[in-house]
From TrEMBL:
<keyword id="KW-1133">Transmembrane helix</keyword>
<feature type="transmembrane region" description="Helical">
    <location>
        <begin position="190"/>
        <end position="211"/>
    </location>
</feature>
<feature type="transmembrane region" description="Helical">
    <location>
        <begin position="353"/>
        <end position="377"/>
    </location>
</feature>
<keyword id="KW-0812">Transmembrane</keyword>
<dbReference type="GO" id="GO:0005886">
    <property type="term" value="C:plasma membrane"/>
</dbReference>
<dbReference type="GO" id="GO:0070778">
    <property type="term" value="P:L-aspartate transmembrane transport"/>
</dbReference>
<dbReference type="InterPro" id="IPR018107">
    <property type="entry name" value="Na-dicarboxylate_symporter_CS"/>
</dbReference>
<keyword id="KW-1003">Cell membrane</keyword>
<feature type="transmembrane region" description="Helical">
    <location>
        <begin position="76"/>
        <end position="98"/>
    </location>
</feature>
<dbReference type="InterPro" id="IPR036458">
    <property type="entry name" value="Na:dicarbo_symporter_sf"/>
</dbReference>
<dbReference type="InterPro" id="IPR001991">
    <property type="entry name" value="Na-dicarboxylate_symporter"/>
</dbReference>
<dbReference type="GO" id="GO:0015141">
    <property type="term" value="F:succinate transmembrane transporter activity"/>
</dbReference>
<feature type="transmembrane region" description="Helical">
    <location>
        <begin position="152"/>
        <end position="169"/>
    </location>
</feature>
<dbReference type="GO" id="GO:0015366">
    <property type="term" value="F:malate:proton symporter activity"/>
</dbReference>
<feature type="transmembrane region" description="Helical">
    <location>
        <begin position="223"/>
        <end position="249"/>
    </location>
</feature>
<feature type="transmembrane region" description="Helical">
    <location>
        <begin position="383"/>
        <end position="404"/>
    </location>
</feature>
<feature type="transmembrane region" description="Helical">
    <location>
        <begin position="47"/>
        <end position="64"/>
    </location>
</feature>
Amino acid sequence: MPNWSRSLFGQVCLALVLGIAAGFFVPDLAAKMKPLGDGFIKLIKMLVPVIVFCVVVHGIASAGDLKKVGRVGIRALIYFEIVTTIALALGIAIAYLFGPGHGMNIDVGTLDASALSSYVEKAHEVSSGGTVEFLMKLIPATMISGFAQGDVLQVLLVAILFGCALAQVGERGKPLLSMIELAGEVTFKIMSFVVRLAPIGVFGAIAFTVGKYGVGSLAQLGYLVGLFYVTIALFVFVVLGFILHAAGFSILKLLRYLRTEVSIVAGTASSDAVLPQTMRKLEHLGIKDSTVGLVIPTGYSFNLDAFSIYLTLAAVFIAQATNTPLSFTDLLAILGVALVTSKGAHGVPGSAIVILAATLAAIPSIPAIGLVLVLSVDWFMGIARALGNYLGNCVATVVVASWVGDIDRDRARRVLDGEIMDAPQPSDVAAQPAKG
């Protein structure tokens, strides 16, 4: 067999091709492959809370300087808000410039609302609570509630508090810190087993999608989907590319370095699937583990760049398709509301439609029933959302690390240039212990 097919990247690419072929030639059988993709994602999510806890606690407790940890967190949040606002504005601008909904002339009375019934209640919960309710949900009922529910933000809060307290204990806390580090190593070893199943997960996810919706399933709203993909590409290569260039690095080289993870995200439409190995690869790049441990998990809820583009682009699209005029005030309202609702996306079942519904609930002039229009192609848009969110968080980590001086620039350039040839594959990365 060719060498490329023995690598995880080659196997994932092969799984993508086989999944598409299975969906095309045996669609009925392929549509039953969904559990393969779902099972892979569940295995990953099972380990993510423990990994986040161990990495963050070890990073903070080992750093010693809690003021610096606080500076990293504050600067990361500032970066998130600025870039998210740019993404939201870009979505509105592209929708107005290209008008993907113009000419559809949809009569809202002809749309079937039954398809949205499962999302309405969740959307109401998201929109009715507001910012205060969202912040209250960050606090778990008990210290282990976040682990049981798989809520990364709740685990992150507990980990930050635990890490700060452990750092303050000093020498007496060293044995406990060593145990947490060992627990992290064991969990990463388990992850190395799971990551090897990525080709199977990708095959199942792609086969199900093509088998159920068909290769030509983008035709109905192909313009919207295509425009969304182009917008994400524009955001990644122009906006993120410029930001990363300002920090002294190349977006193309970073993409090459993360090519295996990018292929898995594209195949599973989930950035959760590569969170642990991405953290390890960013540490291998020369970024301190304390910074990686803070920025990446936080970014998964506060830095959803592609999701933000989706919210504003889809909202304006629905208004255009239903011939609903939007004033400048409406556009500002969409921007402001989406800036808040997008923060609650991670971990919400059917998050895209739910959060979009919650956003539209605050803009009465746009008929919420228009959500039916984008529901059928949500999976395909979800691939671009996952890719954009993932790359946005990787860039954020490099930029924030550069901002606070937590990156070895010489090592990072050598790794990205391929001069350091021992850059680990995901399965190898997962098995390596964290470096302080």
